[in-house]
UniProtKB/TrEMBL annotation:
<dbReference type="Pfam" id="PF00072">
    <property type="entry name" value="Response_reg"/>
</dbReference>
<dbReference type="InterPro" id="IPR039420">
    <property type="entry name" value="WalR-like"/>
</dbReference>
<dbReference type="GO" id="GO:0000160">
    <property type="term" value="P:phosphorelay signal transduction system"/>
</dbReference>
<dbReference type="GO" id="GO:0006355">
    <property type="term" value="P:regulation of DNA-templated transcription"/>
</dbReference>
<dbReference type="InterPro" id="IPR011006">
    <property type="entry name" value="CheY-like_superfamily"/>
</dbReference>
<protein>
    <submittedName>
        <fullName>Two component transcriptional regulator, LuxR family</fullName>
    </submittedName>
</protein>
<keyword id="KW-0805">Transcription regulation</keyword>
<dbReference type="InterPro" id="IPR016032">
    <property type="entry name" value="Sig_transdc_resp-reg_C-effctor"/>
</dbReference>
<keyword id="KW-0238">DNA-binding</keyword>
<feature type="domain" description="Response regulatory">
    <location>
        <begin position="1"/>
        <end position="116"/>
    </location>
</feature>
<keyword id="KW-0597">Phosphoprotein</keyword>
<dbReference type="GO" id="GO:0003677">
    <property type="term" value="F:DNA binding"/>
</dbReference>
<dbReference type="InterPro" id="IPR058245">
    <property type="entry name" value="NreC/VraR/RcsB-like_REC"/>
</dbReference>
<feature type="modified residue" description="4-aspartylphosphate">
    <location>
        <position position="51"/>
    </location>
</feature>
<feature type="domain" description="HTH luxR-type">
    <location>
        <begin position="146"/>
        <end position="211"/>
    </location>
</feature>
<dbReference type="InterPro" id="IPR001789">
    <property type="entry name" value="Sig_transdc_resp-reg_receiver"/>
</dbReference>
<keyword id="KW-0804">Transcription</keyword>
């Protein structure tokens, strides 16, 4: 993984925590968003741990740039506040989840593993709280676009998006809808293509903005 933070002490602490696991390797570090893209291209990490508030290019801009790369890594954004508009925008730009800086070492390790696995979004309850808060206070253009996207989905696809937004895994969705897990994955791949989404967090944001799930 790649660590991106403008505080060298934070990077050192995170590197020590993550490298102690045996199954997580820190391949590089970057001091700001400007360094993130070339280091992702050079080292091809599976996960980028991205500080959201940095002195030069911030984590929002850097996340959008990283997730636009071919075969992008998962991005886990770091924040001091659980209700941070920059984090909401980073999730919309393609981040797979977010993590509070004051989290325990084990929470940080678990978060990286969850994001690397790609099965479910990080901390569904906390992420939904953040998404619901900002969707409820945002103006209508995004909602209009989401509702237009809703018209491209079949009824089954709407059911799956709703389940994803509620934090269900593929196995749980399959059990509820009487589908195999492989079929659920196929549906989600098609939904990603229809909505130009890259991960489950973006589907969750879409579900709130389209009115499938209430804040």
């Amino acid at each position: 993984m790649l660590l991106v933070d403008d505080d060298p002490l934070v990077r050192t602490g995170l590197s020590m925590i993550l490298s102690s696991t045996g199954d997580i390797e820190v391949v590089a570090e970057a001091g700001d968003g400007d360094e993130a893209v070339p280091k992702v291209t050079m080292h091809a990490p599976d996960v980028v741990l991205m500080d959201i508030r940095m002195r030069r290019m911030n984590g929002l801009t850097a996340t959008a740039a990283v997730t636009a790369l071919p075969n992008p890594p998962k991005v886990l954004v770091l924040t001091t506040y659980d209700l941070d508009e920059y984090v909401f925008d980073a999730l919309g730009a393609g981040a797979s989840g977010f993590l509070l800086k004051e989290g325990s070492p084990q929470e940080i390790i678990d978060a990286v593993r969850v994001v690397a696995a790609g099965e479910a979004m990080l901390s569904p309850r906390t992420t939904r709280k953040l998404i619901g808060h900002f969707v409820a206070t945002r103006t209508s253009p995004r909602r209009h676009r989401a509702r237009a996207g809703l018209g491209t989905l079949t009824e089954r696809e709407r059911q799956i998006v709703t389940a994803v937004a509620q934090g269900w895994t593929n196995a749980e969705i399959g059990s509820e809808l009487h589908l195999s897990e492989a079929t659920v994955k196929t549906h989600i791949t098609r939904i990603f293509a229809k909505l130009d989404a890259t991960n489950r967090v973006q589907l969750t944001i879409f579900a709130y903005e389209a009115g499938l799930v209430a804040p």
